[in-house]
Amino acid sequence: MSDFIIRYIVNSALCLLAALSALTWMLILYKAYANWQLAAQDRHFTGSFPQAAGRGLLTAIAAQQPLATGPKARVAHAGFSALSSVEATEVGGLSRSPARDPHRLLESALTRQIRRERRALESGLTLLASIANVAPFVGLFGTVFGIIHALHTMTGSDHGSIGSVAVPVGQALVATGVGIAVAIPAVLAYNLLLRRLNVSLADLEEYAADFVNLAECAGFAIGQTDHSVGGEVLPLARTQEARA
């Protein structure tokens, strides 16, 4: 194998590591900003009704969730959509069948939405884990060919002293060091983001459980006060019909 090919392989490994490092930091910054934004959206959503309780809390959530953004707002929207379909059936004069049990429908809708949020939060984590696992081997790959180049240099020289191979071997080992340097931030970021993912999912599941409990206490008649129909608290489906 010619020296040109060996140098090309080593340089390609270093260029690949540089690209992986840039991609790693782009992912870290993007995920950090995305997590901060989602946390701020959730704080804004839950802080919109700090004094409400019971049916009043459900009324506040029903009024706020169409305009809000964030994971908790989307979970609440999924819950109200499920209950609205049940209430629309009852308003239409159809009996409530076991298949349309509001408790079951609500839990199913909330679970599906939490799974969607999980998939969104998991985006990029697989790539970070892959970079963390692959980068050291890419560096080692470059080091192996760098050492081969050093040995070729030593055999081609008139004297095979340690000094004649120390510099090329040291240069070859740089690739391994670069690979490890690329992997360390990826590993740390992956672990931190995974912990953040688990905390966020636990928070969403707790919020969904509280939502189900509030809906159950209200008899699954999730509504909002509509002053245009006498200030009566109506189920969401009936409220929408009254406003129409």
From TrEMBL:
It is a multi-pass membrane protein. It is found in: Cell membrane; Membrane. InterPro entries: ExbB/TolQ_transport (IPR050790), MotA_ExbB_proton_chnl (IPR002898). The chain crosses the membrane at residues 6-30, 125-152, 172-193. Keywords: Cell membrane, Membrane, Protein transport, Transmembrane, Transmembrane helix, Transport. Signal peptide: none annotated. GO terms for biological process: protein import. The keyword Membrane applies. Residues 99-205 form the MotA/TolQ/ExbB proton channel domain. PANTHER family: PROTEIN TOLQ (PTHR30625), TOL-PAL SYSTEM PROTEIN TOLQ (PTHR30625:SF3). Belongs to the exbB/tolQ family. This is MotA/TolQ/ExbB proton channel family protein. It comes from Paraburkholderia elongata.
